[in-house]
Amino acid sequence: MDYARSSDQRTAASTKIVVAGGFGVGKTTLVGTVSEIMPLRTEALVTNQSEGVDDLANVPQKGTTTVAMDFGRITLGEDLVLYLFGTPGQRRFWFMWDDLCLGAIGAIVLVDTERLDEAFSPLDYFEQRGLPFIVAVNQFEDAPQYPLGDVATALALSPGTPVIRIDARRRDSVKQALVRVTEFSLEKLSQDVPVPAS
What we know:
Elements: E1 13-21, H1 27-34, E2 40-45, E3 64-77, E4 80-86, H2 97-101, E5 106-111, H3 120-129, E6 133-138, H4 148-154, E7 163-166, H5 171-192
Parallel strand pairs: 1-4, 1-5, 5-6, 6-7
Antiparallel strand pairs: 2-3, 3-4
């Protein structure tokens, strides 16, 4: 019987990207759209108990909410796996963000142009921690369309912060967002690496 030598066995490297944003902006949809496995979802029904705690006025059709995280996985090659962690959008669950972001290379902050104010707290969170992020404007069907430069200005983003449009329901669109946040994270990493003295 032949056994593979341990030197022949490859261990897959992994990387992690966090998907954040306000309540009902499409984080669970994004993770589920691109995950190659059945995504882990920690959804709970929205009940009357959330009245006065969660603002449901802008998302009346929402029947469930993420209470811990969404988790998905994508194999990018024989030796590289990408893990996606979607954060809960409601402020009362934000105590979990530090654990979800631990070891992440970057983040996607998903926004809805009708509720841009909900993006400020996630943006502040990543800026304070120095975690590279991009802003992805989710293309809701009835939402107004604004030039991306206007969105960046409205969000008071630092110059150079990528802002893109995506449709969280379309796999190719989500993949483009994942590529862009990875590229941006690598750019930031290369800027932070000290140049050895000659």
